[in-house]
């Protein structure tokens, strides 16, 4: 099944997110997409592994939207939720509370390699069939001087991003290199999402 399928049912995605990055990325798949911001509870108990955190939060975001969505007779509606965290020394870091918190996070990331975890969860609205997975990308940061961190935080870019940087923006200047999926760092691992969609019978290029 694909967007141009001659079958009577067409695949439609509902992105459970208010992230402009995720919206841009999911559009690359070429399927029809509706965007429905999700307001799920993002708290998790202490001690959860990063993989569990991102998978659970991705599922919660998708469930919050699936619960108030209805597919029309001629469509297979799949809600997609996603969650990203940065992990250093086993500690999960989400979005910074404020500029000061962003400075403290970047000081910790400086000159070291951390992991970015992104969970993706798909729910087919009609059947409730739910598929969830995650990817991990290693990111090595340059040594960052105090002046450089201050200049970067002053751009405002870090404030709505896990780990207090955006690899797709001017934050790319702080990054030495990565190992793994780039889109995973930006917040939506497209190749993983495509693997999940294939399991619903959706054919992509
Ligand atoms: C590390 C990194 C994170 N990010 C972003 C991706 C996510 O949007 C954000 C992590 O926060 P999330 O809580 O995963 O997502 P969100 O609150 O932005 O959006 P929603 O829950 O509505 O889907 O950090 C980047 O854009 N670039 C990066 O390099």
List the topology elements.
Elements: E1 10-15, H1 20-27, E2 33-35, H2 50-66, E3 75-88, E4 91-93, H3 99-109, E5 113-124, E6 130-141, H4 146-154, E7 175-179, H5 182-186, H6 190-198
Parallel strand pairs: 1-2, 1-3
Antiparallel strand pairs: 3-4, 3-5, 5-6, 6-7
The structure holds thymidine-5'-triphosphate.
Please, could you describe this protein's structure?
The chain has 205 residues and is an alpha/beta fold. The chain has a single domain (10-198), classed as Maf protein. The protein has six helices and seven strands; from the N terminus they run E-H-E-H-E-E-H-E-E-H-E-H-H. Strands 1, 2, 3, 4, 5, 6 and 7 form a seven-stranded mixed beta sheet that branches. Strand 3 (75-88) and strand 4 (91-93) form a beta hairpin. Helix 3 (99-109) packs across helix 4. The longest helix is centred in the N-terminal third of the chain and has 17 residues, at 50-66. The termini are close together. The model has no long low-confidence stretch (mean pLDDT 95). Its EC number is 3.6.1.9. GO terms for molecular function: nucleoside triphosphate diphosphatase activity. InterPro entries: ITPase-like_fam, Maf-like. This is dTTP/UTP pyrophosphatase. Belongs to the Maf family. YhdE subfamily.
Which short descriptors sum up this protein?
205 residues, alpha/beta, Maf protein, seven-stranded mixed beta sheet, 6 helices, elongated, binds thymidine-5'-triphosphate, EC 3.6.1.9, Maf-like
Task: Briefly summarize what is shown.
This protein is 29% helix and 27% strand. The chain is an alpha/beta fold and 205 residues long. The radius of gyration is 18 Å and the shape is elongated.
